[in-house]
Amino acid sequence: MVHFSSPKAQYTSHKAEIEAAIMETLNSGWYILGEQSKLFEKEFADYIGVKHAVGVGSGTEALHVALAALGIGPGDEVLTVSHTAVATVAAIELSGASAVLVDIEEAHYAMDPSKIESLISPKTKAIIPVHIYGLPADLNQILAIAKKHHLKVIEDCAQVHGARYGDRRAGSFGDISCFSFYPTKNLGAIGDGGAVVTNDSELAERMRLIREYGWAERYISHLAGWNSRLDEIQAAVLRVKLGTLDADNSRRACIAETYDKHLSGTRLEIPVKRDGASHVYHLYVVRTKDRDKLRAYLTDREIGTGIHYPVPIHKQKAYVGRLKGAERLPVTERVANEILSLPMYPELSDEDVAKTIQAVIDFHNA
User: Fold this and answer.
1) Residues 91, 117, 104, 273: is their CA dihedral positive or negative?
2) Which backbone phi and psi does 31 adopt, to 5 degrees?
3) CB contact burial 246-266 (16+ within 10 A = b; e otherwise)
4) What is the pTM of this model?
5) pLDDT greater than 90 at residue 366
6) Cα distances (Å, whole numbers) of residue 274 to 37, 40, 129, 277, 329
């Protein structure tokens, strides 16, 4: 069986270091917001190239905390995309604000900057561009539009740990940037986890307060917050994995290069790189009108695949008919019917990559 992804394989590849880090944490007797969390926050901020990182409970909570820190809530609108995990829109609605949906680029699947300004209203307070599949969105244009209209930018970095845009890492551009450490991410924990990062010291302090009931001192709330803390065991595991993130991303890029080389002659549309940006291949997403037939063919040959994402958020039962911009998303809707994610993770063997490639070629030659 060729697995589509394998968090267990990553654990196994770092087994001794992870288990040692966990035992050190257990023996410390401090399990919430202790030394491991402080060290990880410092190390992750340094890695991204920002002044502050604040660990939180999940990627969804990272977005929720970020919105709250910026004072975004009821009556406000936030521009984002429908081609993303539902968490992006869910976090906006948790804040009390309304999501307004922008269509995506045909080639790169991220927010299309040319579609943004027509959707800006007096209620618009922020833009959340989603960096998708491992490739940063078109930040230069998005940031220029945000500056022109005095809007905040929150980068959704759940799929781009380590990617670069120009000479800086994704996550170092927005007013606040949000990361998920779900186990399948390029930097994944062994449970839920997330982080918000920023260069703004005041915002960082607000986010530290918000993640723990607004406490500046224990049991005394200085502002309204809730419980969204990254626990010590997850922080310890993430510290281990952060040390090999660049090497893991290099392996992903090597796998992608092999896919590119052998699949470019098929009828598949393979991933398109963005000029001036690096791709860390959280997912290797191809596109074909024969998507469902190809997926069934690969499944029959015990090759796992995924679809990211099969139903745009505005087409899902919970959101149908109530999201602004939903009537103008032709690229989003077309892409959802044609995309397929092939196996991609650092521990994927060359043999399994070759097996996947050969199966795709056989499908097209059948």
Assistant:
1) negative
2) -115, -10
3) eebbebbeebbeebeebbeeb
4) 0.98
5) no
6) 34, 30, 15, 6, 22
